């Protein structure tokens, strides 16, 4: 099949693998967090008081659907939202103490599972892959993010 050698197909497959590895490791450790929720928590903790649109921009996620991600994080008690003092139409998002604690416990697991995502590559190949992936994403940065599934 021709598609199997195409970048889009291989990237989709790598995304599937990455999501499966992430989910398995976090479930095995007793955590209920998706890769998108983890990325959103990272943005919220790294940029306290960031608004929802800012979270979407930081994680390259669709602005129209980020509200649902934040809703689920809020329902779990990991974040709170408040009307922004800068823009009454916006909602600032902050990590709760529970959310910060969760993130601190999950981060080492996520860091460790990175080797499993690229298990078929040696250390030099992993470094090269990451460099090339960053380069490819940078050149495609002008494209609007789509609405990926959480």
Automatic annotation (TrEMBL):
InterPro entries: HTH_MarR-typ (IPR000835), MarR/SlyA-like (IPR039422), Tscrpt_reg_MarR-type_CS (IPR023187), WH-like_DNA-bd_sf (IPR036388), WH_DNA-bd_sf (IPR036390)
Keyword Transcription in record: yes
Positions of the HTH marR-type domain: 7-138
UniProt entry tagged with the keyword Transcription regulation: yes
SUPFAM superfamilies for the chain: Winged helix' DNA-binding domain
Origin: domain of life: Bacteria
Keywords noted in UniProt: DNA-binding, Transcription, Transcription regulation
Protein name per its UniProtKB record: MarR family winged helix-turn-helix transcriptional regulator
């Amino acid at each position: 099949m021709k598609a199997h050698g195409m970048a889009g197909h291989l990237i989709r497959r790598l995304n599937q693998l990455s999501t499966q590895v992430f989910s398995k490791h976090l479930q095995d450790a007793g955590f209920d967090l998706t890769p998108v929720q983890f990325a959103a928590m990272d943005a919220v903790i790294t940029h306290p008081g960031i608004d929802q649109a800012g979270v979407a921009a930081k994680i390259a996620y669709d602005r129209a659907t980020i509200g649902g991600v934040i809703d689920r994080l809020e329902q779990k008690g990991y974040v709170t939202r408040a009307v922004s003092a800068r823009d009454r139409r916006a909602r600032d998002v902050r990590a709760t103490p529970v959310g910060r604690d969760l993130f601190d416990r999950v981060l080492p697991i996520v860091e460790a599972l990175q080797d499993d995502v690229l298990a078929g590559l040696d250390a030099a190949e992993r470094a090269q892959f990451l460099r090339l992936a960053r380069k490819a994403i940078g050149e495609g940065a002008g494209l609007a993010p789509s609405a990926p599934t959480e």
